[in-house]
Amino acid sequence: MKNVELTGLKGVGPAVKAKLEKLNIKTQSDLLFLLPTRYENRTFIKNIGLLVPDEEAQIEGRVVVCNIVYRGRRMMVMQLADETGFLTVRFFTFNKYQAAGLKPNTIVRCFGKTRKISSGVEMIHPSYQIINNNDLKPLPKTLTPVYPTTKGLPQAKLRQIVSLGIQEQLKQTDELLPEVIVKEMGFGTLEEALVKIHNPTPEEFYNADRFAPLKRLVAEELIANQLALRRIKKTTQSNPAQALVRNTLIKALVGRLPFTLTHSQERVVNEIKEDLKKPRPMMRLLQGDVGSGKTVVAALAMSIAADNETQSVLMAPTELLAEQHLDNLRGWFEPLGVKTVLLKSNLTQKEKGLILSDIKNGEASIIVGTHALFQNKVEYKNLSLVIVDEQHRFGVDQRLSLVKKTGDNDSVAHQLIMTATPIPRTLAMTAYGDLDTSVLDELPKGRGQIKTIVIPDDKRSEVVQKITQETNKGRQVYWVCPLIEESDELNYEAAETTFKTLSSELPTKKIGLVHGKLKPNMKTKTMVDFKNNIHEILVATTVIEVGVDVPNATIMVIENSERLGLSQLHQLRGRIGRGEHESLCVLIYKKPLNDIAKQRLNTVRKSVDGFYISEKDLELRGPGELLGTRQKGVIGLKIADISRDAYMLPAINRYCADFDNKYPGLSERLIDRWVGQQIVYRNV
Ligand code: ADP
Ligand code: MG
After folding, report:
1. Which of the two ends of the chain, N or C, has the fewest CB atoms closer than 10 A to its terminal CB?
2. Which stretches of 578-676 are DSSP H helices?
3. What is the rounded distance in angstroms from the CA atom of residue 152 to the CA atom of residue 154?
4. pTM value?
5. SS3 helix, strand, coil % of the chain, rounded to 5?
6. How do residues 380-438 score in pLDDT, each as one tens digit?
């Protein structure tokens, strides 16, 4: 395989090269493995009269009129007509030359997403081209790939570069899967798979049970991933770790809890206790549905570290969660004389200095933080245990860089990874190949029931009435406005609008607003105020999804619920039902609801079991979402989906068991192609 320089391709100069490197593309052949996240079907033109809301479609029409107008903001609005009807097309970003080019009677071909308006549908900033009579553009025969891209590298440009890369490199791309495996799994050649994955015909893509080229590449990625995980495990476990033998502090801590542990919590704590006694690093994954009580298990593990006069860290994906963990851990540990600190990014120099020195001199035993914990400045006196909460937001390389910071050069820290991702137990072992697994498979007793109802948005006033009653009783409410548009701008508006409407409908209620555009410390403040019942109602985007714990909140209202993934709805609902009171989850949808959408919402209504819900989610997903982004496992997978592709894992495990002996040299190259060597070797 020759790794021809990117700049050898037409249209790739230093600036574009830099953008491509951001996408992890360093050579021409890497372009072949930049795989589409989805496709657009531009192979036919739809009649305007047949458009329905929320579909991606291509239309061709004559410009009736095109004007720049002000409707709250500046926009370009164009009317198009074909023989079957009229369509309004709206652009928020445009320049004056564009408007000038769209004179009446110009023929325009548009591709974009429709949305519902009172008089039918309209299209918001589609891509378009002007069709001149003398150069009739033929329609493509294959689907148009959409690639993951980066700021400043337009999709059309990237598409062109990938296409050139394929032309140049396809013949030089080596088959890395051993022939026996390819045969046994019934695959075609790599070359064919690559050609088809970038440009399938609609028939190939939509009619195949499991799109074969994808299957072939997924298998290759999973094999590479397995091989990488095995290598990580082997390398990590060849290092010594501190044996943490004393564990008497657990008792004191359990005695201070306001509840008794569930059986699963006890079982898992014992598994951890046994692991920590050994002079080899623990590498354990703790799975537990939302609300199953993972935090207290983490605390008990940390108490063992403290008991042995060593330090432990608990790493959270957001500052919000880190603050919340700090609150809990302080409450439990400080009365026992164990110092607990929080390391986050927005501290004053002085505060930061104090905390860093407490960590360095060993004064602080329990350390909570976010990614700030990775920074080189942070030196530990004697770190023995690293716990990562909701791990899917951290890369495996980040986790590994932390376990090396024990304070001496020989040992690595024990690792506990906690996740609410519902992956069936048998699968977890293969999906997270480098970890042993523990499962919390029961919820604490004494929780109020959660009732879930599904209602259309024209009954919104009943919901407002219900939340008035609950807040009058002293309870609190989440009101979630999920991402509904592709632009952040519009999302933020959705939450803002709901906030304003609710504030005027309920003038006496104290309402907070939290969304991704707030500064981190404002976000945290709003959440803390909600936790302290200063806000009775919290309007939010999905930023509150992971881990927030406010037991007094008993209502979760989710707008546009038909647009969210089932697992995401389940995660959101997990924010209520955390106290003794009965809780209510209200899934509001926009009419009309198709059959699949109905079934999806009903699944969440009928079940509170995360495993069941994720299986149903899979069943109900259509072929168009074949390449959709879901939980990607420990190492960010590019195309494989652990749940969808689970059926391959037993075979893949078998192939990987003796891979290095049977096929010397190949695993290196597979890992290089799919995972990247830096993850496997850095810091291990
Ligand atoms: P998650 O697993 O989603 O992280 P948390 O650790 O946030 O769950 O726990 C959810 C809530 O349940 C917290 O308020 C916690 O104090 C409480 N909790 C944990 N274990 C028990 C238990 N054994 N009995 C009663 N409540 C518990
Ligand atoms: Mg949690």
Report:
1. N
2. 595-606, 610-620, 649-657, 659-662, 666-674
3. 6
4. 0.69
5. 45, 20, 35
6. 999 999 999 876 555 566 666 777 777 776 788 999 988 876 665 545 555 566 678 88
448 CB less than 6 Å from ligand 1? no
Ligand 1 near 516 CB (within 6 A): no
Return the residue whose CA atom lies nearest to atom 15 of ligand 1: 293
Q: Which amino acid makes up residue 76?
A: M
CA–CA gap between residue 543 and residue 675 (Å, rounded):
29
Cβ(155)–Cβ(149) below 8 Å: yes
Q: Locate the ligand 1 atom nearest the alpha carbon of residue 261 and give its number.
A: 23
Cis peptide bond upstream of 592, omega within 30: yes
77 forms beta bridges with: 67, 90
Total residues found in the chain within this entry:
684
Q: Are strands 450-456 and 583-589 parallel, antiparallel or unpaired?
A: parallel
Q: What is the pLDDT of residues 169-187, one digit of tens each?
A: 999 899 999 999 999 988 9
Burial class (CB in 10 A: 0-12, 13-18, 19+), 71: exposed
Domains in the chain, start-ordered, CATH in brackets? 6-37+147-210 (no CATH), 48-139 (2.40.50.140), 249-277+293-419 (3.40.50.300), 450-627 (3.40.50.300)
Q: Which helix (H) or strand (E) holds 205?
A: helix 202-207
CA of 295 to the centre of ligand 2 (A): 6
- 493 in Cβ contact with 517 (< 8 Å): no
| Residues flanking ion ligand 2, Cβ below 5 Å | 547
Q: How far, in Å, is the centroid of ligand 2 from the Cα of 294? A: 6
